[in-house]
Amino acid sequence: MFVLGIDPGLTRCGFGVVEGSLQGPENFRAVRAGVIETDRADPVERRLGQLLVELTTLLDEVDLDAVAVERVFFQRNAKTAIPVAQASGVAVALAGARGLEVRQFTAQEAKLAVTGYGAADKLQVQGMVARLCGLHSIPQPPDAADALALAITYFTTCRTEHRLSGVAS
Q1: Catalytic annotation on 63?
Q2: pLDDT at residue number 74
Q3: Cys-Cys link to 150, which of 24, 68, 87, 128 (CB 3.0-4.6 A)?
């Protein structure tokens, strides 16, 4: 199964596709990762349009089963939170329009799922993503590693939910 992780941002939107299984061993394969960058000088509508076009192209190229998007957590600076929320909305709407399952996780949930520590720093997340995906070097830039971490969080969360539903039965 293939899951796309999105670390939303208007200037830098990280993406990462991870292959894994909901029942199998806890090994993952990073299929693709990178960042979509928009020009700060462009109007917001053009930048969001660019995100839409580039994410559409990505979804056309990879046969996805689900999308994991970082949940926007209101930060101290609303000026930062609003563009992130707009970018997140583009990703969520695009995935929803294609009938893909969309799950949203906070940064702390992704850090906890990947490193076991919800306050892990960027380097710890990058290192664990590399280890879990069997990469020889840490994924760069950090936005791409965060997106891969979100996709891994989807798998680990679904596995836990599956195990717990078996206990409840």
Answers
A1: no
A2: 66
A3: 68
Q: Is 145 helix (H, G, I), strand (E, B) or coil?
A: helix
Is-catalytic flag, 70? Answer: yes
> Residue 7 catalytic?
yes
pTM (2 d.p.) = 0.94
Contact status, residue 12 vs residue 144, Cβ threshold 8 Å: no
Q: How many angstroms separate the Cα of 120 from the Cα of each of 58, 80, 114, 135?
A: 29, 22, 9, 20
CA distance readout (Å), 55 to 96, 149, 156: 13, 18, 24
The whole-angstrom separation of Cα 98 and Cα 113 is 27
Contact by Cβ (8 Å): 110, 153: yes
Give all domains of the chain, ordered by start, each with its CATH number. Answer: 2-168 (3.30.420.10)
Render 17-33 in DSSP notation, one character per residue: EEE--SSS-S--EEEEE
